[in-house]
Amino acid sequence: MLTFTDKGIYCLQGDFYIDPWKPVKRAVITHAHSDHARWGSQFYLAHEYSAPILRLRLGQDIQLQTIPYNKPLYSNGVKVSFHPAGHIIGSSQIRVEYQGEVWVVSGDYKLEDDGISNAFEPVRCHTFITESTFGLPIYHWDKQEIVFDQMNRWWQKNKENGKQSVLIAYSLGKAQRLIQHLDTSIGKVFGHGAVYQIQQTFVEAGFPIKSIEKWGENFTKPEAKGALIIAPQSAINTPWLRRFEPYSLGMCSGWVAIRGTIRRRNADVGFVLSDHADWKGLLSAIQATEASKVFVTHGFTATFARYLNEIGVQAAEVQTEFGKEEEEQISTNTEKLEEGNLQK
Questions:
Q1: Segment Disordered: which positions (predicted)?
Q2: pTM exceeding the 0.90 threshold for the entire prediction
Q3: Which of 132, 190, 192, 228 qualifies as a cystine partner to 304, CB 3.0-4.6 A?
Q4: Which parts of the chain fold into alpha helices (H)?
């Protein structure tokens, strides 16, 4: 029912693409990260919570239709509905049904409820299209409460030592999660311009999340004393970042689970927190769909598809242009990571 083309995932009967990476007439969007939501299509369909960021990134004048979760639309007899993916605010799995056959395109997802995104809901289907960003057994996430406690203790210690705390985190998704859960009794939270813009867009759209201040040129060091500043990876080794000296630099990413990542990014500390499912989460999600066939679209595709086949789930890897949005993504030697890990 769905095919993989040079423009993206295509439904012939419904005549639409899901997360196309080239301009098309009708694009159905799982979420607002730019590797899944690209400029140039004529019409867009997305979840209503994605609308503010889609308009911010793609333009206020895009032709955008939005729908809530679990409310189907029909296109030439094809039933289309959106279901929570738990990845970021507005992220959705796309369920497509035609003549009794059901496919689900997951986009990106995580199973832990982050408190700001609608929690992941498994959707039963015949065929499931999954990511595998962290599709190796070495990737295992602690509960987020543990990680936030680690961050708060690091922040408090820095404050006591007269240092600012700078957290590197992706501006859409990760930053909102941090802002919502960090202990602001310790100090003030500021945002890099990119972080502030995304956060403020959600706040102005009426989402029940915390607001922050943008770090501006007219601010002084005393105002930053003991503060925590959230910035994207592009801020590392820039004059903007050096204005906070003395500071401690922390990285917030699933990739810091791999030894050496923190050192390569000149960070002082790493916090393992991701908006993607870990190895066990991926397997749990797939099992819950009861799908008889799985396509693996991005991440450790070959390794993850091979493992699924070994445990009796028919799976195949598919080359796509997803996964290129992640500013947190750290270059690693994939072959070394994959070697010998399937038995763990």
A1: 324-344
A2: yes
A3: 132
A4: 51-58, 144-160, 174-181, 193-204, 221-224, 239-242, 261-264, 279-289, 301-310, 334-338
